[in-house]
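Extended Data, panel c. Modelled sequence:
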Amino acid sequence: MATSNQKLYLLDYGAGNVRSLLNAVEKLGHTIEYIRSASDFDKADKIIFPGVGAFGYAMKALREKGFVEPLRAFVESGRPIMGICVGMQVMLEGSDESPDEPGLAILEGRVRLFDNTAKAVPHMGWNGAQVVHGASGAAAAGGAVPCIGKDARYYFVHSYGLAYTGQASQPQTVHTATRYGDETIVSSVWKRNVFGTQFHPEKSGIAGLALLRSFIETDLIRPSPSPQETGSAGVLLPRDIRDSLSVRVIACLDVRANDQGDLVVTKGDQYDVRVSASEGGHVRNLGKPVDLATRYYAEGADEIAFLNITSFRNMPFRDTPMLEVLRQASRCIFVPLTIGGGVRDIVDPDGLHKWTAVDVAGEYFRSGADKVSIGSDAVYAAERYWSRVAEGLDPLDGSTAIEQIAERYGRQAVVISVDPRRVYVASPESTAHHTVKTTIPGPNGELYCWYQCTVKGGREGRDTDVRQLVTACAALGAGEILLNCMDRDGTNSGYDLELIADVKGAVSIPVIASSGAGAPDHFSEVVDKTGVEAVLAAGIFHRREVPISAVKAHLSEHGTPVRLESDTRAL
């Protein structure tokens, strides 16, 4: 059993959002210190090693900081260590993501890219984790075991994984496995004093906090396998692992300053956030951002998105109110947080400090965000992409914010927020753009339309269609599409199924359906008819017209897997 005076350290190589892990540890009543030099390894009784982004970047950063050999020595000493996501992967022999970069080889195995033929990649969302071996090891010996709930779901976000076979020596290292579509991967490892998860416990709600507590408050030391455990007898095989991936229900908060300068959550009607002139013309105020987000976390939201629709150009970026919103929200919310707005190159008003888009994203991550959403700049990046294609040039030259953020923090950290509107045409031949045959005729009876991308909050249309945007951004390295629709925004008439189905068929990255939800039936309809990975709503959640719990209960009744409140209590 761990003692209260044990020193817990965090190994941070610059991965991004480690604030959520710090907050989770503090939520559990503990403190954690940073490893800042090689000598700090000797001071630690336990280490948590979180990681996101590219395998090669993580290994390079460890080498540059002089942490590789001290880390190996720490493991050899027998003291407990917990790796999270890339922090687990680098303990393996290598990754196809960075084939020339060897891993630490503390554990056997190599990480490989998911096959996106029949599923979206990255693997993004809440999935189960099944223990693959019997209880004859630590539990039988009276020792502690990782607290992984049989029916709980945990948050995964990765494009590369270690394949689970259940054969040879794998059962001596693997603790749990997870099925994602047609592939089964290792979701946690446990060998002697080394424990690691592919999922993020610090973003997995109550279930994740319980797992972190079991690592911090007990010594997770797995005994050497017994003769019965050295073979595959009694070990689950890939076919025994069930697919428990759930459809995510996301609460979105449009945040801006009102006329008094206070930061509020608002909601537009086809992107107009002000009430009518007869009602005063003021910005709709639906509550304070952190208060509402905390409420949604308690109500079971799987993710929360803050979309900053105020530029705050008149202040230094470090003083941007959204950074403090993220810091406060991440102290009490332990599901993924997305921030949108202002993710571009910025110059402070004094003209002295310049921020690249990667710098801006990094500051958001350090403040508590897990993903950044890019809107207008994604349209400009797509236009540049297709221009270079037309000129016979390489469209992937690393110059865009999408490429740069994805390279540093991983493609799963980059969300593209799309704001399209319908443009009706008489026939596909009437335009050079990709068209959709519609069941909702235009004003002159047109049966075809194309979806025009907009920038500047929908105020300016561009000569770029949605198909061009999403395919270019996926190629540039985006990990997810947040698909809005200006025609449906605030109407409560249901999602634009034709738009969503068209985009879903065009890309192999996850798609979030947004704009138009007004009833539980709308959520099940869009999932059934388009196969989206996530559904998002705003106004109906803010005004309590349809609670998040009602959406999840409805989806569950219709056979759609969701993370229910009961999942977080099955620990």
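The radius of gyration is 24 Å. This feature is highlighted in the accompanying rendering.
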